Amino acid sequence: MQKKGYILKGRIIDGTLAAPIERGAVVVDGERIAWVGELDALPHDHLSRGYQVIDLPDRSILPGLIDAHTHISFGESRSEEENALYTPVEFRTAKALYYSKKILQAGVTSAFDAATAYNIGQAVRDAIDTGMFDGPRFTISGKQLTTHQGLEDSFPNNMEFPPGQSAVLIKTRDDLVEAIRFQVKDEVDAIKVSGSNDNLITPDALGSSAFTFEEFCIIANETHRLGRICSVHARSRDSALDSARAGFDNLFHASYIDDAGIEACLENKCVITPTLTLLVNLIDAKQSNAGASGSSAFSREVEAATVNLRRAYKAGVPLLAGSESGWSPVPYGQWHAREMELFVDLLGMSPIEAIHANTLAVTRLLPRYGHEVGKIEAGRLADLLVVPGNPAKDIRILQRPRSFDYIFKGGTPIDRTPQAPRVRKWYERQKTFLNGVYEFDEETGRGRLTL
Ligand SMILES: [Zn+2]
């Protein structure tokens, strides 16, 4: 009788910094990897177990990608208003399940979700983990803790903080501890803090930090006491420095980190997840010159990040690859592998280092199951990609998931059938009844729409 399993013969890139094994084999038994190594060293008893043997000439076998920065609850929002105000939570959750399958079909078998709206992230994670829907293995951060100086407190002071915003507004120090305990009760895996503002929302709002050093310490201590990890949105120099000094596990962006911040990261073993894809996509899409968001601010930030993050990486701070999928510049299922190309082109990494940054390196953000994924190693879950060619030579191969031969999650090839495009409901985006002003032109005696 055939046992459920596979012997995959091809080039192996295992998720570590090791050179590829050019003629390798991976044995998959049930949901786990049973053996990996040089093909010539494959023990004979594996061959007699009835596994399906698959020859993969000029193919590479890698761990499934781990995206270190997604927002599964954001639904490809184009604005803060769309994200915070529109679409009932129930429909948002259904959308998130639809999008989860797209992420998996892009070869992303695990993901770190870096702030949720409502408790959508936890529901999606659990719906996937209990076998009801297809998607990556998610690690979920709660709503971002923010202040009036942080990202997400976007609306005027004369209105209430919207419950649909993916943040909770912190007013006093006691609120900090309460918010963390509240979220842990709601089954988050991680605490997320909005440590600075963001050019996306407020132009050049990079000067200061949204929390004091003492407040960052309170957050880190309480989060760690409750067995969770904490990350921070830290575009400004001060927010990167103070959160790293306070012992945060992960800094998002850190574009303006300086030597003192780098030193603090090394001392406290903080990692940085730059998430350059969002900025570069925004610049490329030329969508950034409307309203408050100037494209020059994004370009300046990419320039600064290129210098500062190179220095951080050289000094020994691990960099993790995340896409920020969930906002409209980074739609689900399409850009998850671009960060690796940017790490190579902008930060000077080798393709093998970039693949490591998008696989094994991210497992430190996955406290529940990080030891079970991210590397092709006996005993770990068989979350694997089989791709044409050699991504150690051309990293962009990984951006074309439809060309992959296989995507395995837990030893089973996933359903690759593309989902039908969904239809947008009228209540999702905005309540604009005319996109422009219908002006009267006295010359012609007619109306004219101006934008
Ligand atoms: Zn984000």
CATH topology of the largest domain: TIM Barrel
How many domains make up the 3D coordinates?
Answer: 2
Instruction: State the order of secondary-structure elements, H for helix, E for strand.
Output: EEEHEEHHEHEEEHEHEHEHEHHHHEEEEE
Q: Please, what is the CATH homologous superfamily of the largest domain?
A: Metal-dependent hydrolases
How would you write the strand order of the largest sheet?
3-2-1-4-14-15-16
**What spatial form do the alpha-carbon principal axes imply?**
globular
Overall SS class: alpha/beta
Question: What profile does the largest beta sheet have?
Answer: 7 strands, mixed
CATH class of the largest domain: Alpha Beta
- Ligand inventory: zinc ion
CATH architecture of the largest domain: Alpha-Beta Barrel
Name the helicity range. 25-40%
Mean pLDDT over the residues? 94
Over the alpha carbons, how many angstroms does the gyration radius reach?
23 Å
